[in-house]
Amino acid sequence: MRNLDLTTLRSFVAVADSGGVTRAAGFLHLTQSAVSMQLKRLEDMLGLDLLDRSGRTIALTASGEQLLAYARRMVALNDEVITRLTDHAFEGEITLGVPHDVVYPAIPQVLKQFHAAYPRMRIQLEASYTRTLKEQFDRGARDLILTTEKHLDAGGETLAEKRLVWLGAPGGAAWRQRPLQLAFCRFCTFRPEVTAALDREGIAWEMAVDTESDRTIEAAVSADLAVNAMLEGTQPAHLEPIDHDGALPALPVQMVNLYGARSDADEVTGTLCTLLRSAFAPQSAQRLRAI
């Protein structure tokens, strides 16, 4: 298998763009003889005449014109790879805050795609509560944050709207018990929404599990000791939406909001924001749930 030499292709593109070997040599910081030698080597390797040297100026042959389009793409791709992997402009850290309940399944895919595009950049991921994340963002401790809330503050944008759903153990019956046994984290923004909905329907309830640990909540619910509520499509595999047939109240829609996506953001931050928007688009949510 024969391999094209990018150095000879770069010289060929320079000659085509500048209209002559002399100007191309100056652009490439090479001697005229070095550029001529590289062109001859390229023609010999392909077995084709790429330049028409019969006139006073150099012109491309039909084969040369065809090669030029490929050569431009190959040189540009080479330069892009070198820039992305070595340019210090794409080296640094972005701090991203995400609520516990929307980390999966979208965020791991975003991190994977971002790392592939900017391998020298580091994302410091903080999973916390919306209230805590907004406080951190306000004092400059986070570059970007996602939130789950019922409203949108100034400077943010809504990526998705998702309904809260009741969750229980697969095939569980805890949702039938009265008073209804609930398991929620102390600072969960959904907690007051859920208890208010139960109060409006006159359904008695008890906070059976009151903790700061999401793992504790998941363990209690998966053991069918209590129920919880999460955004549709974000529940772990060991919990499932409860098919209560109206026995439990409908829960409100929540917004997934993004803060920190400025119009004047640098390329790297802008790319991360684009990946977040794409990950929370409705069609992406359907695809991620299938993975």
Describe this structure in a few short sentences.
The protein has 291 residues and is of the alpha/beta class. Helices cover 43% and strands 22% of the residues.
Question: Would you kindly provide a written description of the structure presented here, covering whatever features stand out?
Answer:
The protein is of the alpha/beta class and 291 residues long. The protein has helices at residues 6-18, 21-28, 32-46, 62-86, 106-117, 130-138, 190-201, 214-222, 267-279, 282-290; strands spanning 51-52, 59-60, 92-99, 121-128, 144-149, 156-168, 180-185, 205-211, 228-231, 240-241, 253-259. The chain folds into two domains: 6-86, Winged helix-like DNA-binding domain superfamily/Winged helix DNA-binding domain (Arc Repressor Mutant, subunit A, Orthogonal Bundle), CATH 1.10.10; 91-291, D-Maltodextrin-Binding Protein, domain 2. 43% of the residues lie in helices and 22% in strands. Strands 3, 4, 5, 6, 9, 10 and 11 form a seven-stranded mixed sheet that branches. A two-stranded antiparallel ribbon has the order 1-2. The model is unreliable at 285-291 (pLDDT under 50).
Topology:
Layout: H1 6-18, H2 21-28, H3 32-46, E1 51-52, E2 59-60, H4 62-86, E3 92-99, H5 106-117, E4 121-128, H6 130-138, E5 144-149, E6 156-168, E7 180-185, H7 190-201, E8 205-211, H8 214-222, E9 228-231, E10 240-241, E11 253-259, H9 267-279, H10 282-290
Parallel strand pairs: 3-4, 3-5, 7-8
Antiparallel strand pairs: 1-2, 5-11, 6-9, 6-10, 6-11
